[in-house]
Known about the structure:
Strand content: 25-35%
Number of strands: 3
Mean pLDDT: 92
Distance between the termini: 19 Å
Number of domains: 1
Radius of gyration: 13 Å
Helix content: 10-25%
Strand order of the largest sheet: 1-2-3
Low-confidence stretches: none
Number of helices: 2
Amino acid sequence: MEKILLNSKSELSKALDFFGNEYEGRINRVIRSYPCILIGDYSEDIECGDGYNFSTVIPDDFKQKSGEITRG
């Protein structure tokens, strides 16, 4: 698992340099706002193939109640 802090959209190029431009669409789909921590999880899957899955953590995620589960 790799993590990168992105403070603004202008820093997105740092993530693309590391993960690869082929993941630009996937990365853009998970970024909801800035700042965020982009998390890339690499897996080797026989059925789906190799590659990264992405998620983010944003400051608003820390405003929810402790133990509360959210999606999205």
